[in-house]
Design brief:
The complex is a heterodimer of chains A (about 525) and B (about 400). In chain A, strands 4-13-12-9-5-6-7-8-28-29 form a ten-stranded mixed sheet. Chain A has about 525 residues and is of the alpha/beta class. Chain A folds into two domains: about 45-135 and about 145-250, Glutaconate Coenzyme A-transferase (3-Layer(aba) Sandwich); about 250-500, Glutaconate Coenzyme A-transferase, CATH 3.40.1080. In chain A, strand 28 and strand 29 (about 510-520) form a beta hairpin. Chain B has about 400 residues and is of the alpha/beta class.
């Protein structure tokens, strides 16, 4: 099987394959242009006769559960990142597979983290064929150097739900790490010694995977309340000593910044929202991961407090800053998509206004609407932005794939999308003529905030009009690019091979760009 | 790259936490041509450009045989050339200077009475802190050659400060340099005066003679380089002797615009400790304020060193303003906003000033010599102060220019 075949130019001018790992693909056609017909994927019909009447689905070990699930060559295995860098289960699955001599598995994580970097060895020895989901850090580097046997596929959180729902990805075995569960398979993440918050990323897998295994270190007598995952979807329950390290869900990207330059970006972004009339009683917002984005919430809170106003709802990434807003009465609801710290976990248990959501409710593009387009303003990061407002979050300017998409693409559908970025990082300009990888088309990106000026997308004449008399430094994106070049010099383009090593999916399942092999 | 142990020069910084800098190791050899090695974090993007820069500097100084290793963490051009030039001049004597082009935007001069609420200290040998200093909009930036630079780095820092004055945009901040103590500081002037510095801070100033010596050297250099811009001075009083001579120092030269107080050294000189209550420095601060006011200068307070505590900074600013100071040094960009906010007139002060100015307008229109507000007579200095408050409020964005019609 060829890794990819039949490359064509898509609607944003990028060359993308129409066949990946033997499966036919659609090139990106423009926003909202691709509408598949037909029915959603459905898993096999199960029968109660095959499950214990007393509801006890426990098996002694994860190995037993995988064997009973019929683990064999070429299967698609999924895991989830609610423990972020504290995940302990994904690696165990592939250790067991290797021990059993199983080859060519497809790993479908909702996101990968540095704690899983050892899986490069399992990719190298053929246990894993390729990854669909995200390839962060070492896994991204491995992919970029063309070492993965199959072609990598990057999907957003919403795209992952869409792909599973639409049957683009058929998961054979889903393994869900659960901080608390009962023997029937009901499971929750908000309590137990390893409480990590929301298990929402596992929802699609529980609904659509052929076999579902729940792994926990805190088995409680039936019923496990609340049940974020319903036991009726679950085949086996396994009890282990330790299911994950919750302290490690906090990482560098989930702490506010202390850098004065980034705080300035956050301050200007908040001021922009204020002057543009976005901050008002009852408004909604979402701030992505990353220190700058998180800091903006603090400025929002200050403004709301000063004016005696409150926000109706915030999407998150819940963290101690959002929780404080909720508990200070500056926010009615946190619609939690994933939990970024232990204050978020506590709040999920204690606060009625802290509500669990999932990629289905928030992000799935092939649904009857979703929350992301209802958000008044979203603040996101990017590795690069170009003069057409296209942005990149997965590769760096040297071509290396280092990050996943997360919910980033889905969030672009908000009423106003703002990307605060430094104009350059260690002499490497962030605003370019053309981004290395297009993850989001410029027509969805409204404002770029840098420490040397703010550029508004010319399409947003309403925002331009509102900011006409602003004291903020409003400039054109071209001017910002030129200023970066004046300071840094014009950067040479890195040499990338024509060979494609991974593709980036858009929220509708089409391919928006290809990632090329890096020439060493 | 292998180096012999002799005739080697190093310049710049490297190691953990160092960014936007480059570390240069240079050895002059007698044969073998130019051997250069560039290890750069940004090699993919700027490797070729750095190489060109390196060769251009070596050629400029007629160096035919040398080994040069560059360990770069994303330094911009004027930093790389400053490091190489410093290394070269540690090994050979030459009058030639390799100057980066002067940014057109940097050709501004400043006025004697401009606002000097905040001035941000930048260690003179740390390029990463210089690049973005101006975006935080301090009234002034200080490239510090004195206490913020280690003794063995003083030489190379001069080249960096010189190049920064020429090729880094500080976005309109008054471009200040704190030279070393006189007489060592006189040597710093060669690197500073010809490069459009706006103001020179004179540390540990103790008497008027130091100012005269300094100005003689500045004037020589100005003549030599055809400099017509004013170069202002801000002596820093940091000793008991300096305090006792403050008024003479204030009057010693017409280009002195302001005096600052440095409390760490002063309290050490007194044999006491700096406290939050600051009773130990009350006398010195008052003397400085009085000396400045008597001579028509701006009195500037010492820095506040707890960069994490913005509430304490605010208290400190309010106390400082109450004592009569016009501004304060900052050691972190986040302090700037607080300093501006609380040195600027507050709403009560602005409202009062508006009433007085309106009364003054009315009296002038009626041709009255006496300004009165209600039943109270307003003295001319009070009117003058009110006008100054209004100007400042407009300047700080706290009051509209058109406030008379908006009221």
């Amino acid at each position: 099987m060829k890794k990819y075949d039949k490359v064509v130019e898509n609607a944003v001018g990028r060359l993308v394959p129409t066949e990946v790992n033997g499966v036919t693909q659609h090139p990106f056609m423009g926003i909202g242009k691709y509408k598949p017909v037909g029915r959603k994927y459905a898993p096999q019909i199960a029968s109660c006769i095959d499950y214990p009447a007393d509801g006890n689905k426990t098996l002694p070990t994860l190995k037993d559960a995988l064997i009973n699930s019929g683990l064999r060559d070429g299967m698609v295995i999924s895991t989830h990142h609610h423990f972020r860098n504290g995940d302990l289960i994904a690696i165990q699955i592939f250790e067991i597979a290797k021990e059993l001599g199983i080859k060519d598995l497809v790993w479908v994580p909702s996101a990968s983290f540095e704690c899983q970097s050892i899986l490069t060895e399992y990719l190298a020895d053929g246990t894993i064929h390729h990854i669909e989901g995200s390839m962060n850090g070492s896994l991204g580097r491995f992919t970029s150097e063309g070492k993965m046997k199959g072609l990598g596929i990057l999907r957003s959180h919403g795209g992952r739900y869409q792909a599973i729902q639409d049957g683009e990805v058929v998961i054979d075995i889903a393994v869900i790490a659960a901080p608390t569960a009962d023997a029937f398979g009901n499971a929750t993440g908000d309590r137990g010694p390893a409480a990590c918050g929301l298990l929402g990323f596992a929802l699609a897998d529980s609904q659509y995977a052929n076999k579902v295994v729940v792994v926990t270190d805190n088995l409680v007598p039936f019923p496990c309340i609340p049940w974020q995952i319903q036991g009726n979807y679950v085949d086996y329950v396994v009890v282990v000593d330790k299911v994950g390290i919750p302290e490690k869900i906090v990482s560098g990207t989930t702490e506010v910044t202390k850098s004065p330059d980034r705080l300035l970006l956050a301050e200007w972004t908040a001021q922009f929202c204020d002057e543009a009339g976005i901050i008002k009683d009852g408004f909604s917002f979402q701030a992505g991961a990353g220190g700058t984005a998180l800091s903006i919430g603090i400025y929002f809170a200050e403004i709301l407090k000063e004016r005696g106003m409150k926000s109706r709802w915030a999407r998150g990434g819940s963290n101690k800053y959002l929780v404080k807003m909720l508990e200070d009465g500056l926010l009615d609801y946190i619609l939690d998509g994933q939990t970024f710290d232990l204050d978020g976990v506590r709040s999920m248990r204690e606060n009625e206004g802290h509500v669990n959501t999932s990629p289905f409710t928030s992000y799935n593009y092939h649904g009857k609407g979703n929350f992301s387009s209802m958000v008044d303003v979203v603040i996101l990061g990017a590795t690069e932005v170009d003069v057409n407002f296209n942005a990149n979050v997965v590769t760096h300017s040297d071509g290396y794939l280092l990050h996943g998409i997360g919910g980033w693409q889905n969030c672009l559908h908000a009423k106003c999308t703002i990307i605060p970025v430094p104009l350059f990082r260690d002499r490497i300009p962030v605003i370019l003529d053309e981004v290395t990888t297009i993850c989001g088309p410029g027509e969805l990106i409204d404002v770029i905030v840098t420490e040397r000026g703010i550029a508004i997308n010319p399409k947003r004449t309403d925002l331009i009009e509102k900011m006409k008399n602003s004291k903020l430094p409003i400039r054109t994106i071209q001017e910002l690019k030129e200023e970066a070049e004046r300071i840094c010099g014009k950067a040479a383009k890195p040499k990338l091979s024509d060979e494609i090593v991974a593709v980036v999916k858009w929220v509708d399942g089409t391919i928006i760009d290809s990632i090329r092999k890096v020439e060493k | 790259m292998e180096f012999s142990n002799e005739k080697i020069a190093i310049a710049g910084n490297k190691g953990k936490g160092i960014r936007s800098d480059c570390f240069v190791t240079l050895e002059l050899t007698s044969s073998g041509g130019l051997q250069t090695e560039i290890q750069s974090k940004v090699a993919v993007f700027f490797g070729e450009e750095i190489k060109k820069t390196v060769v251009s500097v070596l050629n400029y100084f007629d160096i035919k045989n040398a080994k040069l290793l560059i360990e770069d963490t994303g330094a911009i051009d004027c930093v790389i050339t400053a490091r190489i030039e410093a290394a070269i001049k540690m090994l050979i004597k030459t009058d030639k200077v390799y100057l980066p082009e002067m940014y057109a935007e940097n050709n501004y001069s400043t006025t004697k009475d401009r606002n000097r609420f905040s001035r941000l200290y930048l260690p003179g040998n740390s390029p990463s802190l210089m690049l973005n200093a101006g975006i935080h909009k301090p009234n002034g930036i200080i490239l510090d050659l004195e206490d913020a630079v280690a003794t063995d780095k003083k030489f190379e820092a001069r080249f960096l400060v010189r190049n920064a004055l020429r090729a880094i945009d500080f976005y309109g901040a008054e471009r200040m340099v704190r030279i070393n103590q006189i007489p060592q500081g006189l040597e710093d002037l060669d690197y500073v005066v010809p490069n459009n510095v706006n103001l020179i801070l004179v540390p540990k100033c103790e008497d008027a003679d130091q100012i005269h010596t300094l100005n003689n050297r500045i004037n020589d250099l100005k003549k030599q380089h055809n400099i017509t811009n004013e170069i202002w001075l801000m002596p820093i009083i940091e000793s008991a002797k300096g305090v006792m001579n403050a008024y003479q120092i204030a009057l010693s030269a017409p280009n002195i615009v302001s005096m600052a107080i440095g409390l760490e050294d002063y309290t050490a000189d007194l044999g006491t400790r700096r406290t939050n209550e600051a009773t130990e420095s009350f006398f010195a601060r008052s003397v400085l304020v009085n000396a400045c006011r008597a001579a028509g200068l701006q009195p500037i307070d010492s820095v506040f060193s707890d960069i994490a505590d913005m509430d304490a900074l605010k208290e400190n600013v309010l106390k400082s303003k109450a004592l009569g100071f016009d501004g304060m040094g900052c050691i972190h960009p986040r302090q700037i906003k607080v300093i501006h906010e609380y040195f600027a007139p507050d709403s009560v002060e602005i409202d009062k000033a508006k009433k007085i100015v309106l009364a003054f307008d009315e009296a002038t229109a009626k041709g009255l010599g006496v300004v009165s507000l209600g039943t109270k007579m307003i003295d001319p200095p009070v009117v003058k102060r009110a006008i100054k408050t209004i100007d400042l409020a407009i300047n700080m964005g706290k009051l509209s220019k058109d406030w008379r019609n908006e009221a």
